[in-house]
Amino acid sequence: MLILLIGQIIMSAVLSVSTKFSVIVLVITIFYFFFYPVFPLSDTIAINAAKRHNKNFITVRIFGSIGYAFFALFIGYVLSVIGSSQTMWVAIGIAAIALAITLFIKDQDSPVAKMDMSGIWGILKQKELLWFFGCVFSLAIAVRMNDAFLTVTLNNLGASENIIGWSQLASSMSEIPIFLLLSLYGEKIKELPLLVFASLMFATRFLLVGIADSAGMIVAIQLLHSVSFGVFYVTSIRMLTRLIPDHYRATGMALYTIVWSSASGLLSGTFGGVIFEEFGRHNFYIVAMSFALFASLGFASRYFYRGPRVKTVTGAGVQLSAAQAATAASAEEESVGK
Question: Membrane topology per the record (predicted)?
Fold first, then answer.
């Protein structure tokens, strides 16, 4: 984590003085090399810490929403005063604060298996997990399209940095009550119906953004973030931790991040700009809505399809214990709608 944060700070400093487009692309690529791994690492640390202290992971994750909401609003006002040209220096300051906090975090004991690609491949051959990643990828394309062009949409509608900050505040704060509710009652509802619901809420959200005619409407629409991302995030992490053994949790979270952020961001960024420029905002969000609907159909079809029970995963250096195999089987039964 320390290395990743230091890398972010260095790349942000380089980016702040870069002027050539080719150099900027290269620096951003290296920046994301240090940026995206923070998410699976921090989530893994939070999950292990919550388990060790008999706490719910979601109650820990709520502080991430609070921090995001605060900085979304705070940065909007700061940039309105100092100018958007100073954005990277603000980012460096925030990364430096995170680095200082990380100095007080200790490594946590958790079950770890030796790196064995054949064992990981044995886990990835689970049909349930591949189906899950496929649906997540489809939904992620839609989400990354919105993430990349929401600011462009707001700017086109005449929004200032303050309004953009308020839109981010509305979305992040709306997560908190959903996180609390799901931490208390989420286990009573099976994962796949919740994922279907979240995907449909994403589709509704993108449709509304596509037809909105003012920045104020989009800020209001951002409140749907609660029943779309809030429900999806909690439920997807819950399902992932049940499908993957504890000692491969960090690897599973890394694969999840690749699907949810990296690969989907690459694809959506490649054709998203073309669609937005050539066909306009409305058609752009219709495409995003279509990907979200496709994901909902994928989750729904898995819910109604009773696949085979999960078997004990074996491979070179990997063999689930009886307790882990029972947990995996239970997760399979729940996820196909027993």
Answer: Multi-pass membrane protein
Q: What mean pLDDT is predicted for residues 55-73?
A: 79
DSSP H or E segment with residue 123: helix 117-124
Structure tokens at 55: 């706490």
238 close to 186: Cβ distance less than 8 angstroms? yes
Q: How many other C-beta atoms lie within 10 A of the C-beta of residue 211?
A: 12
Give the number of other CB atoms < 10 A from CB of residue 107.
7
Please say whether the beta carbons of 37 and 77 come within 8 A: no
Q: How confident is the model over 137-156, as pLDDT tens digits?
A: 999 999 999 988 888 888 88
Burial class of residue 25 in the structure, from the number of CB atoms within 10 Å of its CB (0-12 exposed, 13-18 middle, 19+ buried): exposed
Domain with 131, as residue range(s), is 116-338
How far CA 293 is from CA of 161, 191, 197, 206, 290, in Å, comes to 31, 17, 10, 11, 5
Q: What angle do CA 30, 32, 35 make, to 5 degrees?
A: 125
Q: Calculate the CA 43 to chain-centre distance.
A: 11
Does residue 91 sit in the same domain as residue 143?
no
Same-domain pairing of 141 and 239: yes
User: Residue 215's pLDDT is what?
Assistant: 87
Interval 258-316: pLDDT, tens: 888 777 777 777 788 889 888 989 999 999 999 999 999 999 998 887 544 444 343 33
CATH of the domain at 194: 1.20.1250.20
Phi-psi map region of 83: left, alpha, beta (phi>0 left; psi -120 to 50 alpha): left
Measured in whole angstroms, the distance separating CA 136 from the mean position of its chain's CA atoms is 10
- How many C-beta neighbours within 10 Å does residue 197 have? 18
Q: Answer yes or no: are the C-beta atoms of 223 and 201 closer than 8 Å.
A: no
